[in-house]
C-alpha cells in the first residue's frame, strides 16, 4: 500500500473547488508505491492522480519536481503533467500535507522485464536528459556520495543484524567511492529512480515515466548505472548483458556517451548499488512493526555491488570502446 494519510470526502470536495477539473466521482487509494500517499481521482471531467507528499519529500523541493515534470511534458516526454488550480498554483495543502494533482498516465509497469523494455528505456532516458538541459531550477542529489555516510551511520548497528560484516563492507565501499567518484563527467537533470515500477508500457511501447520525487542534478551517466542495476539483473542475480547492451545502445542513438562516461560505468554502478542498498537498509531497520508497506530487500543490492566490484572494465557490460 501507499496511503499514509486518509482524505475525508468533504475535504477532497472542498479541495477540488480550487480547480477547474470537475467534481469528485470517486477517490481510491493506490496500493503501489512506498513514499507518498497516492489516489486515483475520478471527476466528472476525467481521471487524475492526487498525491499527498509524505516523509522523504521536502516541501521546498516540490517546485523543482513539479516544474521538471511540466518542463518535460512541454518537450514531448510523456509524464504526469501537474494540474494548476484556478489561482495558477499546482501545489497546495490537503489534510496537513503538501498536495498536488497530476494527469493520469495510461499503461502498466512491466512485471517481467524483456529486452525490448530496456531498449525503450534507454531511448527515453536519453531524451529526458536532453530535454532537461535547459531546465532552470537546481536540486543537488542529497543521496549521492556526500549523503551516503549519514545514511550508513544511521543504520550501522542494526545493519549487522541483517548480515554480519555488512557495515564494514559498506564503509570500505564508501571510502573507495568517495576517493574515486568521477565528478567531472557531464551533468544534468536525472530522474534518479527509474525502476521498472516507475516506467509504464502499453504493449511494447513505453507510454510514460512517473514518480519524479528523487529527481536532481547529477552525472547523466549515473542514471544509466542506476538502470543497469534495476533493469539488467535476473531474479537469480545474474547480469543480463543483452539487456545492458540494448539499453546503452538505444541511449547512445539519442545522446552519445563520451569515452570517459563509458569507462566510468563500473564505478557509477558500484555507487548506484551502494545508494539503493543504503536507503533500503535504512527503511528495513526503521520499519514500523505491523506497517502495511513491505520494505525492499537491501541484500539484493549487495549482490549487485559484488558483481560490479568484480567487473574489470566496461566490456563486461557488453560495450566495446
Ligand atoms: N500519473 C499517474 N498515472 C497513473 N498511475 C499513477 C500515476 N502516478 C502514480 N500512479 C500509480 O501510483 C503508484 C505509486 O506511484 P509512485 O509515484 O511510484 O508512488 P511513490 O512515490 O509513493 O513510490 C504507481 O505504481 C501507479 O500505479
Ligand atoms: N526504487 C527504490 C525505492 C523507491 O520506491 P518507489 O516506489 O518510489 O519507486 C528501490 O527499489 O529501492
TrEMBL record:
- Aminoglycoside phosphotransferase domain location, by residue? 27-257
Q: Does the keyword Nucleotide-binding apply?
A: yes
Query: According to its UniProt record, in which pathway does this protein act?
Result: Amino-acid biosynthesis; L-threonine biosynthesis; L-threonine from L-aspartate: step 4/5
Gene3D superfamilies, alphabetized = 3.90.1200.10, Phosphorylase Kinase, domain 1
- Alphabetical UniProt keywords: Amino-acid biosynthesis, ATP-binding, Kinase, Nucleotide-binding, Threonine biosynthesis, Transferase
Q: Does the keyword Acetylation apply?
A: no
InterPro entries, per the entry: Aminoglycoside_PTrfase, Homoserine_kinase_II, Kinase-like_dom_sf, Pseudomonas-type_ThrB
Report the catalytic activity. Answer: L-homoserine + ATP = O-phospho-L-homoserine + ADP + H(+)
Could you list the residue ranges forming a coiled coil in this record?
none
The record's EC number reads 2.7.1.39
Record-level Gene Ontology MF annotations: homoserine kinase activity
Pfam families named in the record: APH
Q: Which family does it belong to?
A: Belongs to the pseudomonas-type ThrB family.
The entry's protein name is Homoserine kinase
